[in-house]
Amino acid sequence: MATGKPSPAKNMLSFWRSIVFLTTPVILCPLPIYYASTENSKIAAGAYAVIIMAVYWATEVLPLAVTALLPIVLFPVLGVQSSNHVCINYFNDSNMLTVGGLLLAVAIERWNLHKRIALRAILTVGVEPRWLMLGIMSVTAFLSMWISNTATTAMMVPIAQAILTELLKEKGMKPEGQVEDKKQNRIMPLDENTGLLSTTTSKNEQIQALPLKNIAMEKSDHDDDEAELIADQVRPSVEQADKKAKGLLLCICYAANIGGTATLIGTPPNIIAAQTAQTLFPKSPGIDFVSWFCFAFPTMVVALLLAWLWLQRQFLDYSCVPSCISRRGCSTRRNQNTAAYEVVRRQYDELGPFSFAELVVLSHFAVLVLLWFFRDMAFIHLENGRAAGWTYFFVQGYVTDSSAVFLIALALFVWPSRPPSFLCRRGNKDLRPSEPAPPILDWSAVEEKLPWEVVILLGGGFALADGVKVSGLSEWLAQGFRGMDGFPPLVIVFIVTVMIAFTTEFSSNTSTAAIFLPILGTLAQAICVHPYYLMVPATIASSFAFMLPVATPPNAIVFSYGRIKAFDMAKSGFVLNLVCLLVLNVAINTYGIPLYNLHQFPPWTTGTCNVTTAGPSVTPANITTPTLLTNGTR
Length: 634
Prior knowledge:
It contains 27 helices and six strands. By secondary structure, it is mostly helical. The strands form three sheets. It has a two-stranded antiparallel sheet. The protein has a two-stranded antiparallel ribbon with strand order 3-4. A two-stranded antiparallel ribbon has the order 5-6. Strand 1 (179-181) and strand 2 (186-188) form a beta hairpin.
């Protein structure tokens, strides 16, 4: 039967990206044209650019990094900002902090330090499913704090797959991966590569591989009973093994998303939050590595532990908190005699002994963390009013976190990757000419592995936030949001975090943060609460994307392996979203208040307000203190 030509509607749908790209600016063009001759022309122009970028980012009609370049065109053409001022945002201090962190991540990946850490952690906890899941989640979250969560997931999934190949035979099926057919007194083997059940009906017939999840055996007149017997015997252990496999894979992408929230360089939205706060409120103390870590790391740990318990409950059939009270529980935690353990041991042994290059990278990484933590110790004030820290010996305010990370990154381009072999280090029998060892980092490795699209995407977010402020759009939004000042701040934070978390299921968390954070900073000022009270939890919520494969690259990587269905991810991810949002809201309303001084409306905002309270009380936040002006006077 001949098929007809596709309808014009179907032909147009195949070009939907081009249609959205071309029609969006045209449909929105009345906005800047109508207000062109009024005093709100800049506001309308800024809104026009923001809406276009929001549509392009949400629909991904262009690559995300390409859309991030639009401010270089739109803002100068629309008269919002000059090109010089727009382009500065693409390599400002926050973006250079990201570049420095990425350079360190390249060094870690180049010398396989991340893989050694991952395998060592798994060997420590063992391969008993619940402890294996904890080990995988812990090391994935830790690595995602410092390197790309995409790269972390891409490394961890093959390791988990190798372990699962053995666990499917040891845990999910009968011993040795075989099922006994008691009726015929014979053994039914399992295919080692596919994990499929192989059945033999006679010596002359070929072996048939049947899926573990849905055993559908071809029946004949003489083997109906045999097939039913085998199916009834295999199905429970097969389903159990399949659930364990799904849980061990899903825990990787979930831990990568959660772990990235703990540090300022862990994921791009965190950097966007720090820069947006500095852009909207230039007089604010800003968000540095330590202040972010002190709030986000405990939140991450609690969320990770609850995620582990939830995944156990759903996929490993454990209904209580695991313990080592029983002798059996302690003995199975680190079973070193299983084939799965040997797979991990073999991969770890293939890395060889701890190399000189790995030691160099690890030591530089440790020094960098110390430099970040002890740069400005705000809790220790000296006699002259300055905070203690190693930056005390430099001009105040000149040295930032990016200075520290580039000090270490530049050292990696010089430090040799093996011990020197000259003078006293040269052996008497070594006749080869002395030559310098290659450095830990070289530019060819940086060009190959550094994700420049992340740098451009961050720059686009910074330029967008700056344009919102310069155009006056932020002040206009502040006036519009003043009607919400009667709502309790606690309720507003909860609504904002839920909205951000479910929005980022359908769009990039970086673009979501770039669009919403300037608006939330303005909203906080309008309703008279501390801007960080909305911006910090909203930023972390943008990484809580657990429901859909398209939500984050880690989700997509795990889904691409074919074992996970979209329903499995949505079912477990929905509950995990709610759990993590609950943890986040409790955190910001408890220890987040004294950490960021959220109980007081800050004097460094750009407007006036008659509020100081932004705590967890449900009392409206505009009834406590007299007006605070921009300079802090009453």
